[in-house]
Automatic annotation (TrEMBL):
Residues 11-96 form the N-acetyltransferase domain. This is N-acetyltransferase. Pfam families: Acetyltransf_CG. It comes from Epilithonimonas arachidiradicis. PANTHER family: BSR4717 PROTEIN (PTHR31435:SF10), PROTEIN NATD1 (PTHR31435). InterPro entries: Acyl_CoA_acyltransferase, Gcn5-rel_NAT, GNAT_YJDJ.
Length: 105
């Protein structure tokens, strides 16, 4: 994660069902679904003003850390999150082994 994002807090916006960070009034976020033992990440997006800044990667990393600390298992349905885990295999440890694409990570 780029240093400029390290001190930006991750917000679990339960009303909008998304994890988000706010950068200069603009948002990068991941839509999620949650069950008792799992969190599914469905879609990652950064507002156009944040394109190319690393904000999307920052919100993914912060969200993965949140899931790890929660003790829940991850279902990475979002292609961006899936690709992020492939590039950073240390995060595979929090992916639910029952996830359909687990063997491709």
């Amino acid at each position: 994660m780029k240093p400029e994002f390290e001190n930006i807090p991750l917000v679990k916006n339960e009303t909008k069902k998304r994890f988000e960070i706010e950068v200069n009034g603009h948002f990068a976020f991941i839509n999620y679904g949650e069950r008792e033992h799992q969190i599914a990440l469905v879609h990652t997006e950064a507002e156009p003003e944040l394109a190319g800044t690393g904000a999307a990667a920052a919100v993914v990393e912060k969200t993965l850390e949140f899931i790890k600390e929660s003790g829940k298992k991850l279902l990475p349905f979002c292609p961006y999150v899936f690709a992020y885990i492939k590039k950073h295999p240390e995060w595979k440890a929090i992916v639910d082994e029952k996830f359909g694409g687990y063997d491709q990570l």
